[in-house]
Amino acid sequence: MKKLTLSNLTLFDLKQLVDLDEADTPRAAWNQVDGHSLTDNEQQQLDYLLSHLLNEKIHLFNEATIWARAIYPLLLLAERDNIQAWSDIPLQARYTNFELDGVADGALGRSVAGRLEAPYLVILETKRGIEAPNPVFQLYGQLLAAARLNWHQNHNEQQEIFGCYTIADSWTFVRATVSGLEAEKPALRVEASREYAEKTDAATILKLLKAIVARYCNTKQLHT
Do the beta carbons of residue 145 and residue 92 sit within 8 Å? Predict the structure, then answer.
């Protein structure tokens, strides 16, 4: 069985492990967030957050500061019921022919008794530098791991999982479906959004996060 570390995952690795389908998604499919309007309280908190970002040179901040000041606060605003935002989430999953091991920078998922169950949205904060790995393939690996963890919870033949990678204050969302979870070579289909810059698109980012959480909650209700 092949053992892979998520932070070192490459496109070559993925194509050996899964049937990968990267689809072009119309922008309209990601912009349908009108049904997830912001409450007055959310808008006030968003305005307060932006007041501390608009005049800052975000790209000059270190990664920990960007996470604390820009990324995690939006995840907190997307919480609902027992769906909570967490940081540094271990991801360990075993498929038929391979194992994945690593850590997600952040996640939204169901919190139970002080622990986060299988995450529905995983967040990757892109490491900077010329030699930094492509964040897309690491995120794909995290989506595969999260899908497997969710499969252990609900045993759905097809798992829908969301992810996002951030570069400074820019967010790019990915919707993934994973099928054939017990096959020798599972199928991974991914659809990416455009980039959303937090300074100008914060409301849209939050609406997307809320829509993803609502989708998870609605799916859970259908299976209970």
Answer: yes
Looking at the DSSP bridge assignments, the partners of residue 116 are 111
pTM above 0.70, yes or no: yes
| pLDDT tens series, the chain, 224 aa | 899 999 999 999 999 999 999 987 656 566 666 567 899 999 999 999 999 999 999 988 999 999 999 999 999 999 998 899 999 999 999 999 999 999 999 999 998 878 888 899 999 999 876 566 789 999 999 999 999 999 998 999 999 999 999 999 999 999 999 999 999 999 999 999 999 999 999 999 999 999 999 988 877 654 44
Instruction: Decide: 221 and 84 in contact? Cβ < 8 Å.
Output: no
- State the Cα–Cα distance between residues 197 and 167, nearest whole angstrom: 9
| DSSP code of residue 70 | I
Give the whole-angstrom CA distance, residue 124 versus residue 108: 12
Q: Return the amino acid letter for 27.
A: R
